[in-house]
Sequence to fold (202 residues):
Amino acid sequence: METKLEAAPGQDAMMEFLRGKRTYRRFLQQPVPPAVAENIVEAARIASCGANRQSLKYLVVQSPAMVAKVNGLVHWAAYLPPAVGTPKPGECPTLFVAVLQDAAVPGASDMDVGIALAGMTDAAWAAGVGSCIMGAIDRPALTTLFALPEGLRLSCMVAFGYPAHHSHLVEMQAGSVKYYLDEASDYCVPKRPTAEILLGVL
Ligand SMILES: Cc1cc2nc3c(=O)[nH]c(=O)nc-3n(C[C@H](O)[C@H](O)[C@H](O)COP(=O)(O)O)c2cc1C
Fold:
């Protein structure tokens, strides 16, 4: 019996998607639709993971009051002064998702977290929703805020919302990895050239 595969998106379209899927830190005050939030969790649920153990859990934070509380417990844009790197009132994310490692399911790995994060942020970006993965977070305060039971360890937060700025990939200057804002207050994100990261083709 012949099996027909779903048509894959074109390579060019995929690469354009990945170039656009940057970190966003200022957002329109327009809620992320529930269907998009569901897709973000679904992308996490079906993500590849070591030995298919699926040790990660998620918490969706969408009520404006809770989003505001979480926003006070995360740290934005370490390379920029807070006056320009931290979203001001009216620019804050409208949704957060917490990524948690469940000690009751053995084999929790940071690689699993990374793959889940990629899927979640891809699912969001496919709907035009930008994201910022956040590792610089006040874990003790967030653990208390979420009333997390023993055994659930907060790995990171992800902020989501419709972007209120652009973000451009730029050539690295003088070896600096620091992103910066241009005259339009859009992010410029330097990436190392291929010649530097590709050691060879064997
Ligand atoms: C594991 C991880 C943790 C991060 N933590 C933070 C953070 O706490 N605050 C923040 O503003 N950005 C954070 N970022 C976003 C990075 O600064 C961003 O990915 C990097 O500058 C490159 O930009 P790009 O995502 O547009 O390529 C984090 C990204 C990753 C992958």
Summary: The longest helix spans residues 110-125. The chain has a mean pLDDT of 95. Residues 7 and 74 are 40 Å apart (CA to CA).
